[in-house]
Design a protein that fits this description.
By secondary structure, the chain is α/β, with parallel strands linked by helices. It folds into two domains: 290 residues, FAD/NAD(P)-binding domain (3-Layer(bba) Sandwich), CATH 3.50.50; 142 residues, FAD/NAD(P)-binding domain. It contains 14 helices and 19 strands. Strands 1, 2, 3, 4, 5, 6, 7, 18 and 19 form a nine-stranded mixed β-sheet that branches. Helix 6 packs across helix 7 and helix 11 runs parallel beside helix 14. It is globular and about 70 Å long. The two termini are 18 Å apart. Its EC number is 1.14.13.-.
Length: 529
């Protein structure tokens, strides 16, 4: 189905009009744009607050930044890249890859950079207004400040975009450079500096070995140790890359193999007793092989179930921490007294540079307060006890809205790009149902959203994410529900979305050729039934 709207139209003195507005130009935003184009829907705009595409791979530029999903799986199926430099791609490589995808897909003319969404409100249109029973009114700032009207809104804003800065007494008194790892200050001199790092999550595990090579000394404040398994990183030889370029079938086979290995990891992450025991044993063997000091080893050993927190991959972190260039402080940073940093253990450490590798606002998405649905209720208010949805993508009381990388769409065992591709495909199939929806408006049945939320709850109830004895960013503290992770495999997610038949939306009209007949019932499988 094609639309009769051009990419964006503007009547004199009126807002821009577009069928679909996409917020964000990372993997999710580009994935949605690709899905729309392949469905013949050309009337869309991509609004990006930053100065280029790439999302988290544009924003995170700290030393050592890289992906912990194998490079040949961490990309779009339609855009394989034979030229990745190694088994795990560097952050700058991934950003460049997304720039190239945007170029190949010719998204540039439909993209507005440096254009943040300031607000988005669902407007109920008067009957006979000529454009359906409602639309989204989006206010933008920056280079393209103004108003956009869209029939549908796609939030592809990412889930790890706003740095989490902990409340630390006296932090404002620290005299040296102080910044979050996701907002790296490249003007700060690292060579010969005393650097303190707060946090031992995914960013810190990559960052600390790099800093240890340059700093006079690194002090690492650890609140909770992580389970870390071998990474097995290595560069691809020139001959390998040339072979990948010449033999696309080899890349296809490699991707399929990596996918299968990722799906197999779900068992150990989700609480299968035998798989978790094997993985835990492998992680402990990795720790013992790389850290000889028994006291330090004990400080680095988690006391919670394997998989409860994000499992990390590194071959360099333990050797760096075990070296004389790093001091592990087994306590959270609780206060700063000028350049003196005080741990929960009472220990005091001097630092010239302070890096907060403290994660992101994940369970309460920053964009949620900007989006108003039916009766002016914000998405943040709708999610006041944690994010909810149907299909991890659509939300009741927010018509014609699709959220990518939102509720229960993250993974702890495989590539998140796979989830984005499934969500974008579902959104396109759902948009096709606007032809038979009253006024072209898709309204999720609240009962269906509640049922899906309960379905997630049942699947998550016995997993380590809820029962493993740790605090993680997958669970919303307000409700105790698992709201970030999908509690299943990618195969299961595909199957779940494939079963969506349009009945999740209220008042879908079916075409018929006679009383009581529904010969051509729309199907979200992309077929007629």
């Amino acid at each position: 189905m094609t639309t009769d709207l051009p990419p964006a139209t503007r009547r004199s003195g009126a807002p821009d009009r577009v069928e679909v507005a996409i917020i964000g130009a990372g993997f999710a935003g580009l994935g949605m744009a690709m899905a729309l184009r392949r469905a013949g829907r050309e009337s869309f705009l991509v609004l990006e607050r930053g100065d280029g595409v790439g999302g988290t791979w544009r924003d995170n530029t700290y030393p050592g930044v890289a992906c912990d999903v194998p490079s040949h799986l961490y990309g779009f199926a339609a855009h394989p890249n034979p030229h990745w430099s190694g088994v795990y791609a560097r952050g700058d490589e991934i950003r460049d890859y997304l720039v190239e995808v945007a170029r190949r897909e010719d998204v540039g003319e439909r993209m507005r950079l440096r254009t943040p969404m300031l607000s988005a409100s669902w407007i109920e249109a008067a009957s006979g207004a000529g454009r359906g029973a409602g639309f989204w009114r989006i206010e933008t700032g920056g280079d393209h400040a103004g108003v956009i009207e869209a029939d549908a809104l796609v939030l592809a804003c990412g889930r790890l975009t706003e740095p989490e800065v902990p409340e630390i007494a006296g932090l404002e008194t620290f005299p040296g450079a102080l910044f979050h790892s996701a907002r790296w200050d490249h003007a700060t001199e690292l060579d010969g500096a005393r650097i303190a790092v707060v946090g031992t999550g995914a960013s810190a595990v990559q960052l600390v070995p790099e800093l240890a090579r340059r700093a006079a000394h690194v002090t690492l404040f650890q609140r909770t140790p992580a389970w870390i398994v071998p990474r097995g990183a290595r560069p691809y030889a020139v001959e390998e890359r040339e072979l990948f370029a010449a033999r696309p079938d080899l890349l296809d086979r490699l991707r399929a193999q990596l996918y299968a290995e990722g799906e197999a990891r779900f068992a150990s992450r989700s609480g299968d007793a035998a798989a978790a025991a094997d993985a835990r044993e492998a992680a402990l063997a990795h720790l013992h092989a790389q850290v000889a000091d028994t006291t330090l080893r004990a400080q680095l050993t988690p006391d919670y179930a394997f998989g409860c927190k994000r499992v990390l991959l590194s071959d360099e972190f333990y050797p760096a921490v075990a070296s004389d260039r790093v001091t592990l402080e087994p306590g959270a940073l609780v206060s700063a007294e000028g350049s003196t940093l005080v741990s929960a253990t009472g220990e005091r450490h001097e630092a010239d540079v302070l890096v907060l590798a403290t994660g992101f606002a994940s369970t309460r998405q920053p964009y949620a307060g900007l989006v108003r649905g039916v009766d002016g209720v914000t998405l943040d208010e709708h999610w006041d006890e944690g994010m909810t949805s149907f299909g991890s993508t659509v939300v009741s009381d927010f018509p014609n809205l699709f959220v990518l990388n939102g509720p229960n769409a993250s993974l702890g065992h495989n590539s998140s790009v796979l989830m984005v591709e499934e969500q974008a495909a579902y959104a396109v199939r759902a948009l096709a149902l606007r032809a038979v929806a009253p006024g072209g408006v898709l309204r999720v049945d609240p009962a269906v959203e509640r049922a899906y939320t309960d379905e997630i709850g049942r699947a998550a109830a016995s997993t380590p994410w809820l029962t493993g004895g740790c605090r993680n960013w997958y669970v919303d503290d307000r409700s105790g529900r698992l709201t970030l992770l999908w509690p299943g495999t990618v195969d299961a997610f595909r199957s779940r979305l494939a079963r969506a038949d349009g009945s999740e939306f209220l008042h879908i009209r079916m075409t018929s050729e006679g009383p009581g007949r529904r010969d051509r019932e729309p199907s979200l499988r992309g077929e007629d039934t």
